[in-house]
Amino acid sequence: MSKKLLIISNGSTFMVEAIEKNLKAAGFDVIKCEPKIKDLKEKLDDVEIVLVYLGDYVDEARDAFVYLKDICIEQEKSLNVIGDATEVADLNRVAPQGTIDHIFSRPLDVKMLAEAMVDIGEDSGGNVKKFSILLVDDDPTYLKMVKVWLSKKYRVTVVNSGMQAITYIAKNTPDLILLDYEMPVTTGAQVLEMIRSENSTADIPVIFLTGKGDKDSVTKVLSLKPQGYILKTAGKIKVMEQIDGFFDGLKKE
């Protein structure tokens, strides 16, 4: 199990102290810091798990949360938050939901939280590095569903537009992009063209997600030479078989 855990909070409260106490009892080496870039730079490198205790300070600490989100993505740290719906919504403006592994709502059962963090620690402490997937789709329901399916085995980041995908891969290199073919404004085909046009992103594998399985539609999708396609009507078992098969092929190369 990954033993070091960073708690980020705006000052110390009775609840934060209770959380720290229970995490230590569960075997964690707990480090605490304020939501400030300077503090994060000093303490983030030593941990694999981050737990943020949100409050009404999120907007004031916007730059710190942008930095935190970027580091957690780049270094594959597990980012987890505690907060109510409003606080989480404020955080999602700078850290999209797909970058957060777990959200714990208040009122909080501290013992259950500690048990959940132990499970997260066991996942983070594994010897096998998880492949990273960027999931791009404008349908929030589909995004949430597929992220749940994939997150047990892979590190999944979600965005809901083509331009958000381009912005993300400008700073990050996922092992695979699952790209909705039929998006508005910037289509999947246009996104793939932009990805292939840049030397830094041209080799990122792309599998299209499409809702059309007829011969003409599939031929049109495959003419763009992606690494494959997945029908959006496919269920969990079929989707997981295709993604697992793709990564199994990478391991054999």
Q: What does this entry look like structurally?
A:
With 253 residues, the chain is an alpha/beta fold. The chain has two domains: 121 residues, 3-Layer(aba) Sandwich (Rossmann fold), CATH 3.40.50.280; 121 residues, Response regulator (Rossmann fold). The chain contains ten helices and ten strands. The strands form two sheets. Strands 2-1-3-4-5 form a five-stranded parallel β-sheet, sandwiched between helices. Strands 7-6-8-9-10 form a five-stranded parallel β-sheet, sandwiched between helices. α1 packs across α5 and α7 packs parallel to α8.
- Alpha carbon gap, first and last residue: 30 Å
Q: Any idea what the shape is?
A: elongated
Q: Could you list the spans in which at least 5 consecutive residues all have pLDDT below 50?
A: none
Biggest sheet record: 5 strands, parallel
Number of helices: 10
CATH class of the largest domain: Alpha Beta
Fraction in helix:
40-55%
CATH superfamily of the largest domain: Cobalamin-binding domain
How would you classify the helix and strand content by structural class?
A: alpha/beta
* Percent of residues in β-strands: 15-25%
CATH fold title of the largest domain: Rossmann fold
Spatial sequence of strands, sheet with the most strands: 2-1-3-4-5
Specify the CATH architecture of the largest domain.
3-Layer(aba) Sandwich
Number of domains: 2
Mean pLDDT, all residues: 86
Q: Compute the number of strand runs.
A: 10
- If you compute it from the alpha carbons, what radius of gyration comes out, rounded to the nearest whole angstrom? 19 Å
Helix/strand order, N-terminal first: EHEHEHEHEHEHEHEHEHEH
